[in-house]
Design a protein that fits this description.
The structure is a homodimer. By secondary structure, the first copy, chain A, is of the alpha/beta class. Chain A has helices at residues 7-16, 24-36, 39-55, 90-99, 127-134, 149-162, 187-195, 200-205, and strands at 80-87, 104-108, 140-143, 168-171. In chain A, helix 1 packs across helix 2 (24-36). At the A-B interface, helix 1, helix 2, helix 3 and helix 4 of A face helix 1, helix 2, helix 3 and helix 4 of B.
Amino acid sequence: MYNFPSKLLENAVNELSKLPGIGRKTALRLVLHLLKQDSAIADALGESIIKLRKEINYCKLCHNISDSEICLICSNPQRDQGIVCVVEDVRDVMAIENTGLYKGVYHVLGGIISPMEGVGPGDLNFDSLIGKAAKGEIKEIIMALSATMEGDTTNFYLYKRLKEFQITISTIARGISIGDELEYADEITLGRSIMNRTPYENMLKG
Amino acid sequence: MYNFPSKLLENAVNELSKLPGIGRKTALRLVLHLLKQDSAIADALGESIIKLRKEINYCKLCHNISDSEICLICSNPQRDQGIVCVVEDVRDVMAIENTGLYKGVYHVLGGIISPMEGVGPGDLNFDSLIGKAAKGEIKEIIMALSATMEGDTTNFYLYKRLKEFQITISTIARGISIGDELEYADEITLGRSIMNRTPYENMLKG
């Protein structure tokens, strides 16, 4: 269908269209945009991608992306190392950090258990978390995974491996979003929000 | 709002989000996808972009993107050099080539006149086309630009510069798309398709 007049062009389009959500038409549009810009912009983009993949580093403690061996959160003496929030990836860390309300540390799994996508427990960073738990370094674990079947499966797997230790295990609260109207909430969320109702004094603190 | 835990990550996200239609959340999703892939994939992407921008070449005759000094269409003796189809960019050349019905050559303007985006006649490849016309090398020019205000402006500008020469000037036909139902066509298109009706014998050839 596509007769590219240039191998260079075809090659760049092929590579860009390997990215998720970018088809060949979009890739061609992006490439033509780059050709109209100053060449420094294309160079900076190409080099930033190569450099990122080559020099990327993960924190030895929490597995989050980090420029140093131990990330800024794990090495911060103000953060409570005894409280660990388990998340899927760096985006969740950034989202929780943006709330400004959490003072513990994180543990980044690098994904969630998903048999459909061929991701099993062996592909994720579970063992180092269990190791920390076994050493008695953790007093509380907060599971902050997506409210999906994969997230629930991962929560349950983790709960089974952690329950032998003296650790408080919780999940982040599921309920009605702030600003939402009750009549539009789905029944499962509404049901859970009634079962796990919060003492009103806690609301006053938030 | 975004607290990136790594400068490398932030840099790659910044560069990717300079592309049109890619916001910072999408850029982060693409970058995290690249980090999960084999490093050869990120390298190939980065290098294809740098190489394209550095080594890109445009045909000396028609200004289309080409790996050789004269593109494969312009150097093909089977193509009629006397018929020139004027298009905006390489995507239009590819679209027309895909029909398999056109046997002339192209002239790629590299854009259309758009005062809103600061693109004037001086930014586009008009002069070489006028030069060819003045030398008497062209017998017919087909203007195949978008049916937008910018396309119409460009058509009119070109028409004014070309009318002094003995050249047949036409535009591609505007009308009802094949497969479309009349009742859903807009009035301007339907009106034009009646004004510029086609002898039925021509349809039988198509």
